[in-house]
Amino acid sequence: MTLHNRVRRLSAILAASAVFAFSSPAFSQDVSDGHLKAARAAVAAIHATDPFDNILPQAAAALQQQLIQKNPDMQELIGRTISEKALALASRRADLEKEAAMAYAKVFSEKELTDIAAFYNSDSGKKLLDSGPAVTRELVKAADIWQNGVARDLAQQVGETLAAAAKAAAPAAPANAAGTQPEAPKN
């Protein structure tokens, strides 16, 4: 999964989580089983929690490295213990799935969640998830080119308008004795 895809999904989850965090504490009682089921299906379809898959393995690896540096003579015990304890904690992944489903249920109706899941489980939805990051990269490139062109043209047009206004506001050159305008300097 690309970094952009993970960031996009993480942003969506964080936005939904923020809405959930500031909602009433009684909210969880307001979600029907069907609504929560639809939310879980949508979360699964969009792979909303996938960016968090590496949290436990990364934490375990970091802890293992830290402990082995302090106790190199216990490397085998440390590795075995961390693997055992991390495996035991893996079941807590379901807590994240539940929280994600609740966050989405707060923002979307049951029907909307069902529609979201149906779309992202379709061939088109799957292609959007898979190809979206590549399309987004191309869009960002196009937007950069467009932005540069618009900024260039804006600066040029404003410069021309200001130059014309300055020229019009400049006092007329005095006439020479013969009553004609002085000749422009030659380059």
Provide the descriptors you would attach to this structure in a database record.
signal, 187 residues, 75% helix, DUF2059 domain-containing protein, mainly alpha, 2 domains, single chain, DUF2059
What order do the helices and strands come in, and which of them pair?
Elements: H1 3-21, H2 27-30, H3 33-45, H4 55-70, H5 75-89, H6 93-107, H7 110-121, H8 123-169
Architecture overview:
With 187 residues, the protein is mostly helical. It has 2 domains: 30-121, no CATH class; 123-164. The protein has 8 helices and no strands. It has helices spanning 3-21, 27-30, 33-45, 55-70, 75-89, 93-107, 110-121, 123-169. Helix 3 crosses helix 6 (93-107), helix 3 packs parallel to helix 7 (110-121) and helix 4 (55-70) packs antiparallel against helix 5. The N and C termini lie far apart (63 Å). Residues 95-152 form the DUF2059 domain. Keywords: Signal. Residues 1-28 form the signal peptide. This is DUF2059 domain-containing protein.
